[in-house]
């Protein structure tokens, strides 16, 4: 574990003093949803939302999920979210500067990812999408390794088995099937570890996700499905995808679902720990819907101003996951200005390291794409290799001709 701070906190991963889950089902109804200026629910179907830290930074209790963290662990969660946001902002800037081909920002989803990521044990296995930068941080994957694929110099810069963190999956929803199959294997091996699969609200409409729900339920697989409902599947709002809250879909497949405040890092940690423990003890799968918001674009190729109102984003900015934890820590006297300044200094250093690392990444061998296609070679691949080599050589010939003139 070489990433900053992960080595320091390796023994603290999943080491909360006390986490209890009285039930696998969530609690009673909360207040009804309000209608926003865009004509869509401000917080659609807020019934049964698990929350331990309000948007104002006030600590509250929940009848089914509770957690007791030390001051050091609380400060660690804040540090995780701040540094993850810094890395994400740096990657977005690098893409705008032409250093990356694409980037999928997690801005606004730090609590969902850090909370769930820190709930994992070392022997648990993670199947991410392409946006789980915060979970990767928690698993000890160096941030610079995440950028190689987006720069086009590799297919994923880390060994999945070193951190029990699978490579990023671009195909929407397919990783839930991979996770289910892996969990069934874990079950047959007799291990007590659990598997977690991340996906978004848009992916919940994919057939792969429905199939993974079916198999995991029938075989009682030790897998947790963690859906980050960030309200927008690229440009489609959630109500264009489903007529019921996403977490309720689990009921139709025969296992429980719960909705958690995805901007509340404490609630995400508590609920995910309970779900993982449930899976480990043979009680089968569970669906967690982290109700959050994508503050930025779907990817850097997207323009969210074309399909959503500025007022909507402004409303969610008031629920910022980092700010609410900071307010709580300050109100409890758990941080001082020196600590906050040190985190800011560390953020600047991380950004500088990421910039330098990306710009120093070597370009891949142009001919490597033809390797390992077939174990014993293939005549068509050989022909294509020769054609591409001639194409590449034509540029050198053109340069030589220009110099001669």
Word description of this protein:
This protein has 405 residues and is of the alpha/beta class. Helices cover 43% and strands 10% of the residues. It has helices at 6-9, 71-96, 110-117, 133-138, 143-151, 160-163, 174-189, 207-218, 249-253, 265-280, 310-317, 321-331, 337-359, 379-404; strands spanning 18-21, 49-50, 65-68, 125-127, 195-200, 223-229, 232-233, 236-237, 257-261, 286-291. A 6-stranded parallel sheet has the order 2-9-10-6-5-4, with helices on both faces. A two-stranded antiparallel ribbon has the order 1-3. β5, α8 and β6 form a beta-alpha-beta unit. The relative contact order is 0.16. Residues 1-45 have low confidence and may be disordered.
């Amino acid at each position: 574990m070489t990433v900053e701070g992960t080595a320091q906190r390796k023994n603290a991963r999943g080491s909360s003093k006390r986490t209890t889950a009285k039930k696998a089902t969530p609690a009673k109804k909360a207040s009804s949803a309000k209608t926003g200026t865009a004509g869509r629910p401000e917080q659609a179907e807020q019934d049964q939302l698990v929350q331990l830290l309000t948007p104002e930074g006030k600590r509250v209790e929940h009848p089914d999920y509770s957690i007791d963290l030390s001051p050091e662990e609380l400060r660690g969660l804040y540090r995780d979210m701040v540094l993850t946001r810094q890395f994400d902002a740096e990657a977005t800037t690098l893409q705008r500067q032409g250093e990356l081909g694409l980037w999928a920002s997690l801005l606004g989803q730090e609590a969902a990812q850090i909370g769930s990521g820190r709930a994992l044990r070392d022997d648990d296995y993670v199947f991410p999408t392409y946006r789980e930068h915060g979970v990767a941080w928690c698993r000890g994957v160096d941030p610079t390794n995440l950028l190689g694929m987006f720069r086009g110099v590799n297919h994923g810069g880390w060994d999945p088995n070193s951190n029990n963190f699978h490579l990023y999956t671009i195909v929407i929803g397919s990783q839930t099937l991979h996770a289910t199959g892996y969990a069934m294997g874990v079950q047959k091996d007799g291990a007590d570890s659990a598997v977690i699969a991340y996906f978004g609200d848009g992916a919940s409409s994919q057939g792969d996700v429905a199939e993974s729900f079916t198999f995991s339920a029938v075989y009682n697989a030790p897998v947790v499905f963690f859906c980050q409902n960030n309200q927008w599947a690229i440009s489609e709002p959630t109500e264009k995808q489903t007529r019921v809250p996403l977490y309720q879909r689990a009921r139709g497949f025969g296992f429980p679902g719960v909705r958690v405040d995805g901007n509340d890092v404490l609630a995400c940690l508590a609920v995910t720990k309970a779900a993982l423990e449930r899976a480990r003890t043979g009680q089968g799968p569970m669906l967690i819907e982290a109700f959050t918001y994508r503050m930025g674009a779907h990817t850097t190729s997207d323009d969210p101003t074309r399909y959503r109102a500025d007022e909507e984003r402004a409303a969610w900015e008031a629920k910022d996951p980092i700010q609410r934890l900071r307010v709580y820590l300050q109100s409890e006297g758990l941080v001082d200005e020196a600590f906050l300044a040190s985190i800011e200094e560390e953020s600047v250093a991380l950004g500088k390291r990421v910039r330098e690392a990306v710009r120093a990444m070597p370009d891949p061998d142009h001919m490597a794409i033809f390797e390992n296609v077939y174990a014993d070679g293939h005549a068509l691949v050989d022909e294509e290799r020769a054609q591409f080599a001639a194409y590449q050589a034509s540029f050198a010939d053109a340069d030589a001709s220009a110099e001669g003139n």
